[in-house]
Structures are given as structure tokens and as C-alpha cells.
Amino acid sequence: MTYTYIKFESQTVGEKARQLLLSYGISSFLRRNPNPNRREGCNFALYVRGDAYKAFDILTKNGINNLGVETFRELI
User: Fold this and answer.
1) Listing from the earlier edge strand, what are the strands of the sheet with 44-48?
2) Is the pLDDT of residue 30 over 80?
3) Which end of the chain is more exposed for a tag (fewer CB within 10 A), N or C?
4) Are 66 and 17 in contact, with CB atoms under 8 Å apart?
5) CA–CA separation, 31 vs 14, rounded Å?
6) Where residue 33 falls among pLDDT bands split at 50, 70, 90?
7) Is residue 49 pLDDT above 70, yes or no?
């Protein structure tokens, strides 16, 4: 299975992003990044139910710092 998510360096910023998206009617949930880059901080992943790229645009326009969109493929 393939997952697309928006990366954050901390849980606090990820929760702020989740709340902002909820105010736009976009549901999401925050988890630890399944493929972390330790140089980028704690690394949390915001999984968006719907279009992750639209959510990314909303976050960027509202000044929420993030580490970009990433896709992770789960190996069986």
C-alpha cells in the first residue's frame, strides 16, 4: 500500500496543521513518520483524507512550516 503525507519536524506544528485543515473541512490524522530523516527533527506525518497536495497548498498559504509531501510504500 502507498501512503502520501505531509511531513513536520514536531508534533506541535503537525497538530496546528491538523486543526487548520479541520477548519477547512479536511480530515487528517498525525502519526510518527514511517520513513524518518533524523536530520529533519522528530519527524511527524500528517495523513490527509483526500487530496494531500491541496492540503499542502492550504498549509503553505497559511504559513504553516512543513518539510514537504512524501510518499511511502509499505513493503509486504
Assistant:
1) 28-32, 44-48, 2-8, 69-73
2) yes
3) C
4) yes
5) 9
6) confident
7) yes
The pairing of beta strand 44-48 with beta strand 2-8:
antiparallel
Taking the model in full, what pTM does it have? 0.85
Give the span between the Cα atoms of 69 and 76, in whole angstroms: 23
Contact 56, 65 (CB under 8 A): no
Q: SS3 of 12, please?
A: helix
What is the per-residue pLDDT for 16? Answer: 97
Count other C-beta atoms under 10 Å from residue 18's C-beta.
23
Closest CA to 69 of 53, 48, 50: 53
Residue 59 has pLDDT above 80, yes or no: yes
Of 60, 3, 52, 5, which Cα lies nearest the Cα of 30?
5
